[in-house]
Amino acid sequence: MNDRFVSGFxxxxxxxxxxRADLGYLGNAYDFHLQKLDAFCCxxxxxxxxxxxxxxxxxxxxxxxxxDIRLDVITLRHLASYQQMMDKPAVLFPANFFSYNSRxxxxxxxxxxxxxxxDATDHYPATRHNPLLxxxxxxxxRLQYATGMRPYEVRHLSRLDFDYANxxxxxxxxxxxxxxxxxxxxxxxxxxxxxxxxxRRIYPHTTWFFxxxxxxxxxxxxxxxxxxxxxxxxxxPSDLEYCTPYILRHNFATRRLSSWIAQGKNMDACIPYLSxxxxxxxxxxxxxxxxxxxxxxxxxxxxxxxxxxxxxCHEK
Length: 316
Description:
By secondary structure, the chain is mainly alpha-helical. Helix content is 49%, strand content 3%.
């Protein structure tokens, strides 16, 4: 039993989490929103343990000013679906009960945007609380952009996932509990090797590749905040609705497709390779990026890493 949940819905919330994990979803994908719902029910409906219209609507009214209310609705639907599976008379919103805006269009960065952003990561200020942070910021976002990893994947890399001899990174237990191994350029691996040399001197006992000051992986919120700080420091457009580390994954995909188009490659033959590399469940998820492509992209030269992470003698 997860003691973070204390309302009358606690047992079903924990059952829902286990059920979704068995289906292959990340176990903590909706934890933040489940905790919000649990706290609301504990405060306003302490005797209730079945989702009703009154509880659901009251919760959404309280959440209406939040930017992530769409996820609150999804969370309610997940919980109601699970309770109905348990033969409880929970209220389930129809899938089309609420109207949403169309899928937010990711921001496609120009060469100048990319240069400014990575310049900002290179000049992230040092902090005495986490002496590794300035090197982490310069490395983690470059690695994500160069490989198209999901933020969750890059945060949870371990040191054992890097195979420097064969030029690969192993991504374990990603979306739907799928594993994959991706090829990475020598230049990016050299950057990671130098970073790891520094990290081992500062935090020698952690197995995580990007440890925070507590020597555990950075949280979703922390990585998002670091990205936003670098974005703001860069002077890039500040009025974006969608400004998270996921932008780097989107830009990896669009730049790769644009390069193939410029080379005259057969997209139908190339898409399966990109889909497997990015860990997409279906090819349609990869084809989505086709309509985002601008007419032309040029090489950015942003992977020149001299001076970003200093050379450190690697301990044998």
